[in-house]
Amino acid sequence: MIDTPHFPLAAVVGADELKLALCLTAIDPKIGGVLIEGPRGMAKSTLARGLADLLASGQFVTLPLGATEERLVGTLDLDAALGEGRAQFSPGVLAKADGGVLYVDEVNLLPDHLVDLLLDVAASGVNLVERDGISHRHPARFVLIGTMNPEEGELRPQLLDRFGLNVALSGQTLPQQRGQIIRRRLNFDSDPQAFCQQWAEQQQALKARCETARSHLNGIELDDRSLAIITERCFAAGVDGLRADLVWLRAARAHAAWRGAGTIAEEDIDAVAEFALRHRRRDAQPPQSPPAPEQSSSAPVGSDSPAQGEGNWGEMPAQQVATGVRREVPSWPKKP
User: Fold this and answer.
1) Cα separation, 270 vs 24, whole angstroms
2) What is the pLDDT of residues 37-71, one digit of tens each?
3) Please, are residues 30 and 162 in contact by the beta-carbon 8 Å criterion?
4) Are strands 88-90 and 75-77 parallel, antiparallel or unpaired?
5) Where are the beta strands (DSSP E) in 226-310?
6) Which of 156, 195, 251, 323 is buried deepest, with most CB atoms within 10 A?
7) For residue 62, with 0-12 CB atoms within 10 Å meaning exposed, 13-18 middle and 19 or more buried, which class applies?
8) C-beta neighbour count of 97 within 10 angstroms
């Protein structure tokens, strides 16, 4: 039996901010995944599945809502350990997701301890299972994608902070885009193979761009100047803790790699500002910048049918605003 292919990420209409955030976490999984907020029917799972096709393994694993801790982390067979002198490990969802995408729908409805465990493994890339003095460790490097509808319940702030990036989808889609979405969906459903072939060139170009960015990532310095800009703006936004600073810096570097640049620029910092701050900002009002000891210092601040012209993602203009709340996000590249 041949599996039905995923809807190509390159063919998704609109959602440019979310597509960018997903690609950045694919470039650097250490960013800590993406939390997607929005009402039902916004193609969140379609986007997550499309992202899996950009990764080397193409693995896409869904965590069931009613999953137990053993289902998540795996189990150890103690009887086999005593009889054979070695631990018999039965892999869980985390092991199966290694190298791909782990998708958690309605993550806000999962028990808090499972969310915490999930985020720990996503950050470390290693799953450790222990039982009665016997342990098993295995790699679990995956891109974590969580979705939630805020109307159905919130995540505790401590857990919200653990997600690297946060993107909110609006339920109001323009009529023209709605028509394009429905038409592409109908075309895909009628002949998935032919539809994917139609978008194969653009999908392959997107995959190659992510692979190239990953290979260049470690060559881009996490420099002091960029860190200084980010730390001052995190302070101005009133965020608690330091995770926002680290995530923002990593995301800016991934964005520089996405552009093909060799260093982090202000446009990279601006382009990912809201992704890093949205779920961590305490005050919606633009706060005052911290005063300098002697003199104030002003820190630098910061889809459509294939037949239609769209912006080029290689050119990333950004607006300069007090808290990085607004920026221009270029359109998804058009199909040649």
Assistant:
1) 14
2) 987 777 788 888 888 888 877 789 999 888 899 99
3) no
4) antiparallel
5) none
6) 251
7) middle
8) 27
First-to-final CA distance of the chain: 32
Indicate the burial class of 132 (C-beta count within 10 angstroms; 0-12, 13-18, 19 or more). Answer: exposed
Candidate list 162, 184, 243, 280, residue with the active-site label: 243
- The string of DSSP codes covering 79-108 is HHHHHHSS-EEE--HHHHTTTSEEEETTGG
| Residues composing the chain | 336
pLDDT in tens, 238-284: 988 899 999 999 999 999 999 999 999 999 999 999 999 999 887 54
Q: What domains can you pick out in the chain, each with its CATH number?
A: 9-187 (3.40.50.300), 220-292 (1.10.8.80)
Spacing of C-alpha 78 from chain mean position: 37
Nearest to 114 by CA among 73, 163, 62, 161: 73
pTM above 0.85, yes or no: no
Tell me which DSSP letter residue 109 carries.
G
SS3 137: strand
Residues β-bridged to residue 40: none
229 contact partners, CB below 8 Å, separation of at least 6:
266, 269, 299, 300, 301, 302
Decide: 127 and 82 in contact? Cβ < 8 Å: no
CB atoms within 10 A of CB 75: 17
Does an H or E element contain 60, and which? Answer: strand 60-62
Assess whether 86 carries a catalytic annotation.
no
Report how far residue 141's alpha carbon sits from residue 129's, in angstroms, rounded to the nearest whole number. Answer: 16
Identify which of 267, 276, 280, 269 has the alpha carbon closest to the alpha carbon of residue 316: 267
Beta-sheet pairing, 165-168 with 101-104: unpaired
